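Hey, quick one: can you model this chain's 3D structure?
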Amino acid sequence: MAAAQGRFSDGAEGMDSAKESSVPLPFRRAVDGLKKARLRPGIEIDPTKPPQRLAPHAYALEAAVVDGEEDLADGRLILLHDPSGHDAWQGTFRLVTLVRAELEPEMAADPLLPEVCWSWLTGALEARGLAYGEASGTVTMAGSHYFGGLAERRPATQIEIRASWTPREGVGGVPDTSAHLSAWCELLCQVAGLPPVGPTDTATGVVSLPQRRGPHHP
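Sure thing. Here's the predicted structure for all 218 residues.
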């Protein structure tokens, strides 16, 4: 399984000791947790530039579920940290995500799809025993129909999941970001149409829709 790789959003990895000291220790440890995560195969993950105004400290990753040359789903996960705390978060850390994928017709036709997609996120967190709070988000579906020179393309449905939640802090005020990243990648894989797995290759508490394709069989 591939390890998540990345760097501090402000260049903290490899920076001089004076600059490193300006980054709160809990945030540095939380980012280290992201780097040490072990992810299921088929996920490509890289650091990306985080937003600058959402919190005093931010770190972002972008990921894609790939099958050969095809991206089945992609997304972005942002770790925010405000050492002073944030009333809306009810904590000092916040995870924010955007996940997108194109759906097969049998998945797009399911009237319960938005509820199921939300259950994929909460189920992945709960299957790992992760405590979290203040979860919120939206599930949006949009259809595309093609005309003229594109008329040969079949209609397509895209789904977009935007969500955020507050990971509960553990020892030293640091959340288990490695496990939260693993849960987020599980959401990404399920939106891509791959079968669900849990922390021990089980699908505890997670609802599954018809599989779009296997990880190695387009």
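One thing worth noting: The helical segments are 17-20, 25-35, 105-108, 113-127, 177-191.
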